[in-house]
Amino acid sequence: MPFTQFAVKEKYRYQNGFGSYHESEAVEGALPIGANSPQKPPYGLYAEKLSGTAFTAPRHENLQSWLYRILPASAHSPFEPRESSTYNTNPENKPHEKIHQIPNQLRWDPFDLDETVDWVHSLHLVAGAGDPTMKSGIGIFIFAAGKDMDPHEAFYSADGDFLIVPQHGVLDIQTEFGKILVRPNEICVIPRGIRYRVTLPEGPVRGYILELYQGHFSLPELGPIGSNCLANTRDFQAPVAYFDEDTTNTWHVLSKFAGHLFSAKQTHTPFDIVAWHGLYYPYKYDLGRFNTIGSISFDHPDPSIFTVLTAQSDHPGIAVADFVIFPPRWLVQEDTFRPPWYHRNTMSEFMGLIHGQYDAKTGGGFQPAGASLHNVMSAHGPDATTHEKASNVELKPNKVGERSMAFMFESCLMVGVTDWGLKKCKKVQEDYNAESWEPLKPRFKRPSKIENGKADSKDEI
């Protein structure tokens, strides 16, 4: 079926469409008609504009939303540093930590669950490039949490858009725009600045995050594919307006700002938006709805055909970040080595596994909740076991990746690894090369006889 059969059933309603202009009101008549900022908005609400791009950004890139709320987001005490000695997801600014730029292929064992921390404190930067203060680059995180956020806390990142990829457990996310339930095999994007609170209705959670410091995600161009396939526009889901009415309790708004944590107090809930309209909002997508494209004659196509979302650089066709998946699919190519070829790439490739077994890594070292990083021009490809099998298997139509979902964060940037990712997590596999590629044997056979510039047919390979 072209959708995922989730163990945990959906409990919220959504609006459909990627990049669509949505509007939603939890109370009928809360949205002004025509005007965005009337002198007196309906029901005594405050009008507030949330800008995800510059006001003067081109129309096709412009992302803004109008919010109609009980109290504006600015009604809080000053932000103060919080846990400044222990919380830093921007380690290049820390005197005793740094980003390690290394050419080695890296692979990690599954990252541990941590039942002692909430969402905010579960975030660990594994790798990244650039600087959120300059709105350039990306950060790659692992999250592993076991506790709900405090009932009177909300969190936002001023540094970038969060693309969240759950691997274990369920995220119940209350955002300013409404509620979203996110399960393994779904993704969720929470744009820069949007406040939210995460609870864990099914216990501990674990997964991956790509934080995009520059620009926003879009759907890839389809070119000669035409108007449909890959991730279809209609399958993205945005929340409907939902609000709480609380102007008596003390709330703490947590901000990740330049990688550091800050906190501000306010005497009202941040989840008080009664109605909203615009183009800037959180959304989710079921990876089971991805419509794959592939070769039906010969050769293995480039993995760009599996791109779900992209964030382009200032040079068309070159991405600061691509989110790519490898879902269940049929392989039918004739006379073809069907797994990915051996290659060196000008792009960096960070891979993770949500569940199952990735068809290009059958040796057992690439596991759900683990990861790998093949940096700029680091040679990689199928492990020796996979190569041997794929070189000799009978080439008949074959479905690969059943009950599996691997993904890749790909970037044109050279991705450095943090101290936590390289050392402190204690998950790096020291035998990655020894297991994967060092066992490969030479297969070349020099032809014994040359006639008319051609090898004797019996000596050809």
Automatic annotation (TrEMBL):
Residues 13-287 form the Homogentisate 1,2-dioxygenase N-terminal domain. Pathway: Amino-acid degradation; L-phenylalanine degradation; acetoacetate and fumarate from L-phenylalanine: step 4/6. One of its GO terms (biological process) is L-tyrosine catabolic process. The active site is at 300 (proton acceptor). Its cofactor is Fe cation. Homogentisate binds at residues 358, 380. Residues 289-443 form the Homogentisate 1,2-dioxygenase C-terminal domain. This is homogentisate 1,2-dioxygenase. It comes from Glonium stellatum.
